[in-house]
Sequence to fold (344 residues):
Amino acid sequence: MRFLIVKPSSLGDVLHAFPAVHTLCRETGGTADWLIHPAFEPVLKYLPEVRRTILFDRKGLGSFKTFLPTLTKLRKELKKETYDAVIDLQGLFRSAWFAGMAPSKVHAGPANPREGMAKLFYNTKLEMDLRIHAVVRNNRAIAGFLKKDPNTMDFSCPLPPVPEYLKKAELIMAEAGIPAGKKIIGIATGTRWVTKQWEPEFFAEIVNRLGGDHTIMLLGTKADSAEAQKVKSLLKKPENAFNLCGKSGTGDLVELIRKCSLLLCNDSGPMHIGAALDVPVLSFFGPTSPELTGPYSEKAKVLQPDLDCIRCFQKKCANPRCHYGISAEYAAETAAAMLVLNQN
Fold:
């Protein structure tokens, strides 16, 4: 069977769909094409079932000058194949519209999509409960699509290394002069919302309190480099820290995170990568809900202060009290315990 999966972004959302899509293809013996934002396309190499990627050019569609040629190109790509089913896991009007362009007798999407008009493009409804974690929601949706009990299904989704990304990650580490044989703590300070971003001082204090002779890898995009450099400057042993922000693509970043014994991070894409790899992740939450979109792994822990305004889902805040509601001392104690627990 051939499926088209519509889940363009974000990185976390794409990774949250991995177990469901992997299971769908395994259960049916099928393959999947995937409509995705170019920035996140590299991670699809971790799913061997993905046969073809169709790029969602958000920038091109967002400009009056380039909208029509970009849409024409996208429509042409979507119509290249006839699918056994097109499955929109995004639930937006735009994603449903794109899904509707692809030839198929089955166009499936959320029974109660985030944007109600999306329903116009579906002839098969997926039960997707927005009150549960995104991974579980996607898994149950696919189980329903297959008319199976999700409690009897195996949704495990191992992500073995992609050789080209692993080779690039090891080259990045070698060029940075990262020594072999030491435990690596990854730190990813970046995130898309200012309200989700803990201060560099917080991350530095955690590492300083941990002590030891760990190698610190500062990970992220080029835009995260200044924050990462500040973390490094505040460390008692800055010589043990390596700022790799902007050095890797999305695929290489996966392999860099795989090298870590622990990842300290905000609610962000790297957090979801770590969770998908089963790397121990310690993440810090304020305005968002770990119950809905937290790191989905038994090796992950979330610290979130108990405040009346917590989980406000605000992208801006004049008084981000949540950033001061987690002590670096407690975070360091938690991190130390995680390192001991996962030392093997």
Summary: The first helix runs from residue 11 to 28. The chain has a mean pLDDT of 96.
